Amino acid sequence: MQKEKPNIRTIDEAGLKDWLKVQGEKPFRAKQIREWLWKKHATTFDEMTSLSIDLRTRMKEHFRLPALQVSQLQKSRDNTIKVGFRLEDNLLVEGVLIPSAGRYTACISSQLGCALGCRFCATARLGLNRNLHFDEIFDQVALLEKICREHYQQEKLDNIVLMGMGEPLQNYENVIKAIELFTGKEGPGYSPSRITLSTVGIIKGIERLADDKVKFNLAISLHAATDEKRSEIIPVNRKNNLEALGRSLKYFHDKTGTRITLEYVLMDGFNDHPEDAAKLALFCKQFPCKINLIPYNPVEGAPYKTSDEIRTLRFKTLLEKRNLVVNIRQSRGADIEAACGQLASTHKKPGLRGKSGRPGTKTT
Ligand code: SAH
User: In terms of domains, do 55 and 184 share one?
Assistant: First the structure.
């Protein structure tokens, strides 16, 4: 049965060398095989033309080579592309390609669904189905890179952000392994400075990243600067409160030297008052950081509203007066539910979709 064969992508170079030896093949083939898998992103053994047909046939007999498939592709009015990727077990996970001022960002998922239950996020409604395996995380990048070439004639992605479905620090090993593959010599060789991992603020995970001295960027979904407000919208704040979070971020900065990004979704009348800005500024004093203000994307059934431009600019100015670096992020891809916190739509049953008609949807 196909399923019983080991997934070749889970076998490291030493493991491949052992197998090749038994087959009477030269050890250098292991490097070639891994290059086919991670650099050239071969999705069938037949594509591996630098290997003999006989070796390819034996590989087919011994291993399986699962790869994500593009199952749905939707392009928004602002050219953001949302992709539904089909996994080996037939489930769907979402990734987004965001073009902006000639730069291309791939936003990828780390879990299928999410266990955190943040009250303002559509993905939270799905609950957690399962963690993504490192090759499934890797494939999202490989396929979004391919889509970027096909749609925008751009060879490489400019940025990779782990800001899709799921909490990356609750799937630590797979996420780190996937990032090692994007950044390592065997793979497409992205610089870690182009990669950002976004977390809700799991303290143990942040400390682990610090101890591992990771070189990629870290973003925190802060969204409120008092425990009372933060726990209301982000339940895990009760066990990962702001004081402990601040300490772990300072530790992260001390160990890695990296400036931290704080993401703050502005919700009208909830967290956009001048006193909220003052509390946020105080939190930010603990370590070098920059703040991204993100417009709230309405989610069905959630009791929050988007802050208007006046309140948004007032909030920004108050932070800037306290010498903080602040950017206002534009919401992208909202018409196809590809914006922050909206990833869940390919999981809805047709009858439950909030919008009628989905132009640009290609289902294969
Ligand atoms: N679990 C990680 C990774 C998800 S990133 C994290 O929390 O950071 C997705 C980002 O979109 C997070 O910053 C999240 O807080 C934000 N988000 C969720 N729902 C949103 C909404 N309705 N509008 C705007 N941003 C939202």
Answer: no
Mutate to test the pocket of ligand 1, among 161, 294, 296, 345 (most ligand atoms within 8 A of CB): 294
CATH number, domain containing residue 268: 3.20.20.70
Q: In total, how many domains does the chain have?
A: 2
- Identify whether 2 is part of a domain: no
Give the β-pairing of 92-100 and 103-107.
antiparallel
Is 121 catalytic? The answer is: no
For ligand 1, atom 2, name the residue with the nearest CA: 199
Q: Please tell me if the CB atom of residue 222 comes closer than 6 angstroms to any atom of ligand 1.
A: no
For ligand 1, atom 13, the nearest C-alpha belongs to 221
Q: What are 190-226's pLDDT values in tens digits? A: 999 999 999 999 999 999 999 999 999 999 999 999 9
340 carries an active-site annotation: yes
| Residue 145 confidence (pLDDT) | 97
Question: Domain check: are 294 and 319 in the same one?
Answer: yes
* Lookup: tokens for 19: 């197998």
**Shared-domain flag, residues 204 and 342:** yes
pLDDT at 188 over 70: yes
DSSP 3-state of 107:
strand
Q: What is the pLDDT of residues 62-80, one digit of tens each?
A: 999 999 999 999 999 999 9
Whether residue 252 sits in one domain with residue 104: yes
Same domain, 85 and 39: no
Beta strands in 176-216 (DSSP E): 195-199
Does residue 141 share a domain with residue 126?
yes
Centre of ligand 1 from the C-alpha of residue 121, in Å: 6
Residue nearest to atom 1 of ligand 1 (CA): 167
Closest C-alpha to 212, from 167, 235, 260, 180: 180
121, 284, 289, 340: the catalytic one is 340
